[in-house]
């Protein structure tokens, strides 16, 4: 009876927490309105911020009907008009004659010609920033491409027998457990620590997700799911080829059972966002990329423009705004994690820098490597490629869940299969560090990647001392390595950028090996002007007229000689329009000093009958703000986690004061802090009082629970993972997870998920790129065939071992 008065206080506390959560969630998802593209034309109209013009004013102005706001985008709205009102075609070529677009241009022209009064009163047309007519088009899956020539399949059973291995279970999920080549994502040590993706929500933006599969049903997250093709809450596969999304979902979060193996993060929740089963418009895609973005944390996207070696397509307008909205406000301001497959056009000389999704600074671009550490013929190369992970090639594929109650497939692959594996690894990271921003995740992926096949000439060393390859980025993703680094990683400061003045060239590109050289000098004052502390991404926006776009080569050379191949030759690209305001991106120069002369080299060496003119270009530096410098968009205090001891052998740089850009996007949420300061004061005061009383009740009541002899979970108990500090031993976790008896019978997997009676002590190891030893570039000390450099530490065979004496087998 003494504790009856506690219940109302606990109820008040619960209501207060709900209130606070709602007050900071600026864009809770609503059910998208179904659009009828057969009967109506649709237009996306952007209004000025805090516009004095309402959507109803726009209706009258352009004679259209307001259909609602575009998802979470505050100033973007959808309008429609019945096709019966105009006989114009819906093709893109007829947009210049569209009634609504023509009306908009007429009003703008009249407004420009009105010079009767310099101080004109505001007009509704002034509030309209853009009008985009919507066109249906199909996004392309990056599914396994056909094999162009016959190859000799590897018989894993025969190979295993030759090595004295009699257990065939490993052959199915070799990307998790690979006792033959020892090439896998190194995840079992993470599972042993109880890190399995609990509390993390990943959305598969694809062709559907079979929520009825025994492998996926327990982890299906309905609240974060939606079908943008058939407009329904359940994004179930409906077409015969709607298998892609289910297979990707199985790689991420297939449950711990005996169906089709296990996902990289078997306790993560997965949502399905269906967009690839038919044609959609830009507004559909924009809403999909922000759908439930306060709940969905990672968006796994194994799709993009056609991988045909002749397309250039980038998100723009409403799609670009949705991505920016996601990284600024998703996950409570920490930013949505967009993971994109690099593309399967390698066989036709496609390059992921001609894909505006994969060369965006807002996305993690993931390439592919096969089980023998070879570069698959389909995998695209580019300077925007951040990391790689395993997929099909050399006769092997990825084994995963398929559509059906207990169906599995052994034929998943392409870069489509690589991106979900990375999503699974990032889910493990976010379980222990939910405070990480979208840039933190990119940085951790970069410093934790493991180079391999170091005899390959593709590897270069940037001036920050890191190895990079246009084939594989900074290397393969290692789950154990990135999780250990995440435990002590200190959040980056907010993002800034520096846009340099436009460089006008206007010269004909000669047909020779030299081409045209143009340069710009970046000074320390340029960086100081924007408080740029450390370089991350670099973008180059370029204009080139050319009668055959596929002949153009574009290289960016840093002040220290590091070369980014921005634009490569594409033999099938015969487009006659050149490159018009196309933006290339490079991650190669991360942590280099930007001070000095940056050189852009444009060459034309393929077909002398085709010519071009290099018109102009703009260099933009993106990176981290100088610490403790106030900006217009302040970030909350960084995570309380200690500074990382990530590299025991320091990065060999000449200048520790190098790096980055101007204030643009905060990495932590500052949404509505100024306008809702009074709400937060009330909330904090109320929480303080509530917690005092609740704490008294909790500690008093704990004695009663202890007397009953049980470890019952209290109202305040948390089922989360405590971040390990340096020197602590990884313990605990779920040691009773069921084993997949059919496909996961290797001893290592049993040690990871089974109930072990022997708990070996392990040492906390946190490191940044152990390959960055100062002797790594000596030819005599390079390691061929994917073996690791001397001193590299890994977690394998149930414990932490020094792997310097072990070699990877090809």
TrEMBL record:
Pfam families membership: P_proprotein, Peptidase_S8
InterPro entries referenced in this protein's UniProt entry, alphabetically: Galactose-bd-like_sf (IPR008979), Kexin/furin (IPR034182), P_dom (IPR002884), Peptidase_S8/S53_dom (IPR000209), Peptidase_S8/S53_dom_sf (IPR036852), Peptidase_S8_Asp-AS (IPR023827), Peptidase_S8_His-AS (IPR022398), Peptidase_S8_Ser-AS (IPR023828)
Keywords for this protein: Calcium, Glycoprotein, Hydrolase, Membrane, Protease, Serine protease, Signal, Transmembrane, Transmembrane helix, Zymogen
GO cellular component terms, A-Z: Golgi membrane; trans-Golgi network
Residue ranges the record marks as coiled coil: none
Residue intervals passing through the bilayer: 680-700
An MF annotation (GO) of this entry: serine-type endopeptidase activity
Superkingdom of source: Eukaryota
Residues covered by region (Disordered): 631-665, 778-810
Compartment list: Membrane
GO process terms (BP): peptide pheromone maturation; protein processing
Active site: 206 (charge relay system), 244 (charge relay system), 416 (charge relay system)
Signal peptide start and end residues: 1-25
Gene3D superfamilies with a match to the protein in the record: Galactose-binding domain-like (2.60.120.260), Peptidase S8/S53 domain (3.40.50.200)
Domain P/Homo B: 491-627
Major subcellular location class: membrane
Similarity comment: Belongs to the peptidase S8 family. Furin subfamily.
Protein name per its UniProtKB record: Peptidase S8/S53 domain-containing protein
